[in-house]
Design brief:
single chain; mainly alpha; two-stranded antiparallel ribbon; 26 helices; 2 strands; 3% strand
């Protein structure tokens, strides 16, 4: 490698020898001679420049020492110059050492992985050899069995017996299926006549006797499945059709009795109509019977439908993952009912798992036939409660959500669909109510007079108070969405109403936003969604107050603040000392303006108070507005005094403290 090498040359100028350090890139080689040819020539040249006698030997020795010291200094300098290169070489060596250590560690890890891979490959090879051996043995066994079958001779008698057995099997399956179909139909007819003979009695459906009688033939269904699996398809349809008639009849009668036995007061259905008053909040207990009736319907029929679905799956020998045995519960459902819900599948029994998964589809189809149509009676109960009190949708939504979260079994698939549909139906009904409220708000906007608090502002607080009483479980989200939708429309309509006459826009806004805050103060402390709109109304109220008060102050002291505005505009272009020499800005003009604006100050301030009071329908807001008006006026007047002292030094202006004292006495 080429490395920088420093060489020292001797140059003679004017009889003096000087040492010159010359750097050059040379190849590092090993020379046999102690002194190179170039060095020898330099030494001869050096010695040739001196003509010395013997007496000058000491001087020559001293000079040679100095030259030697210069050479040593040059060598030390060369070493110091190469220090950075040495450090770079050392850092490179250290980095290379770290890389070598990392590579050694990686190689160790790869070595371990390769050792495990070798072991796995050996294990796979062993298994493959065994499989190949088994495959060869099975092939030989099949060939031998084929040869054996060719030698066998089945007598005709045996074939005839087998045909008779097949015929007997088909006859048995046909007659047993016909018997069971008739039995299911007759059993349901018997129950309908027995349990619905009395009117006006709210009876809870009881299927214990029906299941007991059906369970008598559970073993027969097992035999039919083993003889002909397809024979269960028409039997399942027949059972579903018969039981569906019973369940729908029971649901219809139960829902009718619930409606007939539930007495509720009349709740308001239109909360934002102009004819609706803003009286006391109705008590939610007046219509609590509606939620109780709906809850009782779910309490009775949801477990019943889940039990019927589970019993049907066991009784009709469906192989599904959630069942411990195809017909175990069908033979005796009184033994450990939890076993019916927590079945296990043997490890390694892949065929059973696949068969179970394939029967989930037919099971869901059968459950659809078993329970289809019963949802109409639930819908009718929901619609009835909605017509009596639309806000009851909130509590019914929470009740439905609670039942829905508890249905996890595979056999409860249709029940989950039913509850989902009920929740959707409740949400749609409640959405219609919200849309009606919004329509009435917009209608009020078109017909409302501009001044004063708009009627939907206080009515919303009554509605929100009532809605909070109905919240149950997960219905919080439904209510918050309703708040967001209604309040957003209210604020939009309020802004549009205020702009009908821009002259009174700020009065309309501040009065209505203040009424909104006053009516929802308590609820906003506990409901985050309403708290957000409360703060929004507070900001809008402050902005409207500021605009209205600034307008009142400016109208009352128009000349004063126009003069101040003119000063501020001129200060952008000229110095304060030059302003008094501008047109209409002299000291005389200042005194004339002050005299016109501040003479009879009591009457002027009284006039400002009356302007603030004018067109204000909410008298309770006047004290706070007047206080804010005085403070804003004092701030503006104090800024005006500072401007006058800066532009018109020495001019007498009533100080801000004097004005503050005067306002405090009024």
């Amino acid at each position: 490698e080429n490395t920088p090498v420093a060489s020292n040359r001797i140059r003679v100028e004017g009889g003096l020898a000087t040492s010159i350090l010359i750097k050059s890139d040379t190849q590092v080689t090993v020379e046999k001679e102690l002194v190179s040819q170039a060095e020898e020539e330099d030494m001869e040249t050096l010695l040739g420049t001196y003509v010395m006698g013997v007496g000058e030997a000491e001087a020559f020795s001293e000079r040679m020492k100095r030259e030697l010291q210069a050479l040593e200094a040059a060598n030390v300098y060369a070493l110091l110059e190469s220090e950075t290169l040495i450090e770079e070489v050392l850092q490179g060596l250290e980095g290379a050492s770290i890389c070598v250590e990392d590579m050694d560690e990686w190689l160790g890890i790869f070595n371990v992985k390769l050792r495990h891979m070798r072991e796995d490959i050996e294990s796979i090879e062993v298994r493959n050899n065994k499989l190949e051996l088994h495959s060869a043995n099975y092939k030989i066994l099949i060939d031998e069995l084929d040869k054996l079958i060719q030698r066998l001779h089945i007598p005709n008698e045996v074939k005839e017996k087998r045909a008779e057995l097949e015929k007997s099997k088909n006859t048995f399956v046909r007659r047993a299926s016909e018997f069971l179909r008739n039995y299911f139909s007759g059993l349901v007819d018997f129950m309908i006549k027995k349990y619905f003979s009395q009117r006006g009695v709210l009876k809870r459906p009881d299927h214990a006797d029906l299941r007991y009688k059906c369970r008598t033939y559970a073993r027969l269904l097992q035999h039919l499945k083993s003889l002909d699996k397809n024979s269960l398809v028409p039997l399942r349809k027949a059972y579903c059709h018969s039981l569906n008639l019973l369940l729908r009849r029971e649901a219809r009668e139960f829902a009718n009795e619930l409606r007939a036995s539930t007495k509720v007061g009349k709740a308001p259905t239109t909360w934002f109509e102009s004819s609706a008053g803003s009286g006391p909040v109705p008590n939610s207990a007046e219509t609590a019977a509606l939620s109780d009736a709906y809850s009782k319907m779910l309490t009775v029929f949801i477990p019943l439908l889940v039990d019927e679905s589970s019993f049907f799956a066991h009784f009709m020998c469906f192989d599904v993952p959630g069942l411990s045995n195809g017909c175990r519960s069908g033979s005796d459902s009184n033994e450990k009912p939890e076993d019916a819900q927590e079945g296990t599948v043997s490890d390694g029994n892949n065929a059973k798992i696949n068969r179970s998964s394939s029967e989930l589809g037919p099971l869901n189809d059968s459950l659809q036939e078993l329970l289809d149509g019963i949802q109409e009676d639930f819908y009718s109960l929901v619609d009835w409660a909605f017509k009596a009190d639309p806000l009851r949708c909130i509590s019914m939504h929470g009740i439905t959500e609670r039942y829905l979260s508890g249905q996890k079994a595979d056999t409860a698939g249709f029940v989950r669909l039913l509850l989902d549909d009920l929740e959707t139906r409740i949400s749609i009904n409640f959405g219609r109510f919200v849309d009606d409220c919004i329509y009435m708000i917009e209608k009020t906007e078109r017909n409302a007079r501009q001044m004063g608090v708009l009627p939907y502002i206080p009515r919303f607080s009554i509605l929100a108070t009532r809605m909070e009483q109905y919240i149950q479980g997960q219905s919080r989200d439904l209510v918050d969405q309703t708040y967001t939708k209604i309040v957003s429309i209210m604020f939009v309509c309020l802004e549009r109403t205020a702009q009908m006459d821009p002259k009174y826009a700020d009065i309309v806004l501040l009065e209505n936003y203040a009424a909104f805050q006053n009516s929802l103060y308590d609820l906003a402390n506990v409901v985050p969604t309403l708290a957000k709109f409360y703060h929004q109304a507070s900001e809008s109220y402050d902005q409207a107050c500021t605009r209205h008060i600034n307008m009142v102050i400016f109208i009352t002291f128009e000349r004063l603040f126009l003069f101040a505005r003119r000063i501020e505009e001129l200060m952008f272009n000229i110095s304060p000392e030059e302003i008094q020499f501008q047109a209409a800005m002299s000291k005389a003009d200042l005194r004339k303006m002050l005299k016109a604006s501040l003479s009879g100050l009591d009457k002027t301030i009284n006039a400002m108070y009356k302007k603030l009071q004018k067109n204000l329908t909410s008298e309770e807001l006047l004290p706070s507005l007047w206080e804010k008006c005085k403070n804003d006026f004092l701030d503006k007047y104090g800024s005006f005094v500072k401007l006058v002292h800066k532009v018109y030094p020495g001019e007498s202006v009533p100080p801000a403290a004097e004005m503050r004292k005067l306002l405090s006495q009024m």
